[in-house]
Design brief:
2 copies of one chain form a homodimer. By secondary structure, chain A is α/β, with parallel strands linked by helices. Chain A is about 40% helix and about 15% strand. Chain A contains 15 helices and 13 strands. The C terminus of chain A is likely disordered. Chain A has a single domain, classed as Luciferase-like domain (TIM Barrel). The interface between A and B is large, with 73 and 73 residues. Chains A, B: Belongs to the NtaA/SnaA/DszA monooxygenase family. Chains A, B: It comes from Cellulomonas fengjieae.
Chain lengths: ~450, ~450
Amino acid sequence: MTTRTLHLNAFLMGVGHHEAAWRHPRVDPSRALDVAHYVELGQIAERGRLDSVFFADGLAVGPNVQRNTQAVFEPITLLTAIAGATLHIGLIATASTSYNEPYTLARAFASLDRISGGRAGWNIVTSGTDAEAANFGLDKVRAHADRYGRATEFLDVALALWDSWEADAIRLDAADGVFADATKVHRADHAGEHFRVAGPLNVPGSPQGRPLLVQAGSSESGKVFAARYAEAVFTAQRTLAEGQAFYGDLKGRLAAYGRRPQDLAVLPGIVPFIAPTTQEARALEQEFTDLISPDYALRQLSGMLGLDLTDHPLDSPLPPIPPIDSIEGNKSRYQLVRDLAEGENLTVRELIARLGGGRGHRTFAGTPTEVADEIQTWFEQGAADGFNVMPPYLPGGLDVFVDTVVPILQDRGLFRREYEGTTLRANLGLEPHVNRHSSGLVTAALSAG
Amino acid sequence: MTTRTLHLNAFLMGVGHHEAAWRHPRVDPSRALDVAHYVELGQIAERGRLDSVFFADGLAVGPNVQRNTQAVFEPITLLTAIAGATLHIGLIATASTSYNEPYTLARAFASLDRISGGRAGWNIVTSGTDAEAANFGLDKVRAHADRYGRATEFLDVALALWDSWEADAIRLDAADGVFADATKVHRADHAGEHFRVAGPLNVPGSPQGRPLLVQAGSSESGKVFAARYAEAVFTAQRTLAEGQAFYGDLKGRLAAYGRRPQDLAVLPGIVPFIAPTTQEARALEQEFTDLISPDYALRQLSGMLGLDLTDHPLDSPLPPIPPIDSIEGNKSRYQLVRDLAEGENLTVRELIARLGGGRGHRTFAGTPTEVADEIQTWFEQGAADGFNVMPPYLPGGLDVFVDTVVPILQDRGLFRREYEGTTLRANLGLEPHVNRHSSGLVTAALSAG
């Protein structure tokens, strides 16, 4: 039996997850605009033997363009650029099922998977904002349930398309003039409520068979979707107890889909402020907090809750906010903000400071050993299979994690010193993908690759 | 006044444009599947100081999957991979206005333009086959005129989105907490027959302002579209006289859109078989012709004409084929095949051999000097601003062009020895893009960059 080990993803965002990172002296904000910055981040993550890097995404400029350093590149192209400068790191792009066509998106991911030698992952989102809807012909975002209905059908189509080419379909027989065995190239012939797609996909089978499937919604619909499809889940959990509850809930849902607990990795987010002493780490976090602009943060908070809070007094609690059933946007983020504000009885100023670090993800200020301890505790006490590491500032915050926390985790036998395989799926310890059309023999050939 | 010089694009396709290239001993067909092959081709083209490389594209597996080495990668991701391994070469991807959303596609090209430092180009197509339509919910391809109607509106939306961010919109003022000047970030607010798109685009202004716009349809609708939008046109012309007629026709249409002849480069295709003697070059071409599989070629021809010719006798002429007004697919390719067959009174076997080299593009077998002479003649006699070089086999056919023909063109003062600028637009000698929202001062700043 192999020892269970951690999986670590680097969630990359501009020059850092802290909303004021770009104003801090440790950061050069112009790097958010430079592809070389993101390539360097991929290389740092690979140096640290992390499983993957990941970009979130939205399909609109946010309401705070004057302070938004985030939306600069489209994730699939950006990860393709990183692919060429790295060999092992997994490459996870966010893309929407609401505003893409399955044929086009399945093809882009298959192409990235082929270009990267089997390192592509797809963080599946349904795009919950009205601003995004307005870029695709809609007055407002479709209802939450409708978005998940489309997402489910989208996945079924994409999965069929990725299985278009069996692993041994390509013959390359120049003498006989046979490039591919047409009997091993399959149509999808999908006809459903949202899509009609004939197939086959015009990218021959990629190294992983299909990209890693990732999901991050923690609403009820999100958890159902994750239990059915996801192989990794990013989640925001504030406390060990909440993390354990979420972990147990999600793992418990897998059997209903014929899946085992180890078929899905739960990766809570952590925003680590790391320094040689606890006191220095806390002081560093405070420096960032002090750079938050309240007017910007109030607009961000207004966007998360769908309420206009821009004139709300900073030292009062939140006004009463509507029940979650009444909203159609990002339900898990909404619930998280609400729990945070009400559960800890925070003023708006305090809430803004807490959200500023990582938009509701857990922030943690400490020494390398304290960060490693925290990761180990969650990992060993049933709250995590690893972490979604969200450096508050970049590249420095990733450098310090890789150079000081990773070696401790390695020394404790909790984290790899070298990559286990050549694909993202292999490094995550997942079974190779089995093409639905292949015989047992073909499956074995795939596994051997 | 600057001397007018040639522009050369390398049209890359799998292991070569000749349909039997992958069977020839000079070719390793497995390279069609390997991203390193395409990266090497980009580097060879850059070594030869070519303006750009280009990938055609379709959104379906062709009818001859058993002999199809072409559809392996999606072009935007593939060109992003080439971007990271090159510094100067332009990167032109084909993408469809019929099966993409303007917001998504405008963003992908802006991202590629940013990643490549201003080298992106878009070959705009409307996707003329029923097989593609069947991957996007349709029973058959939309009417030719409807596709061009959507394409025109698509371009108007994309152009508005690319102008979302003025060149000086990004402030990066950390002290004041101002990342961007919101008054210089503009919505599109487009509401038309096919699209409603709010904007702004969430990729800040790219180095070229927008990608180079390329077009390749030679139908009447295609020429109208090209005259309005295109900055480079790829075209298949069989003879100097036909090339001159097309060139004069297209250039003559520009004034109606307030454009000058030098605002659009006409680049006919040429498939060069190059060898030290004319006789060896012709023998080389014959070797490729001899590898054509008639049954495969008949299916290709059937697809081009929308007729089932698979049982037609090879040594008879084509049967009567329907008038061009009756078809809704790729009209310019249809017309070209028809003209070739009828104009030269070819049997089906002869037609297949002629089409096998480059699907109707001009093939030319000769010495490096003869190829250079041919290019110079077309360039100086009003038929071309340069050529779309379509090597019959790859990488060897591109290597030999770069190593033997390019130096002759350079020695004659017809072609650059070093790149003129840092962007594709600059190397093509085009004016910098002027953002619609910018003042004269801002435009000057853009030009200086």
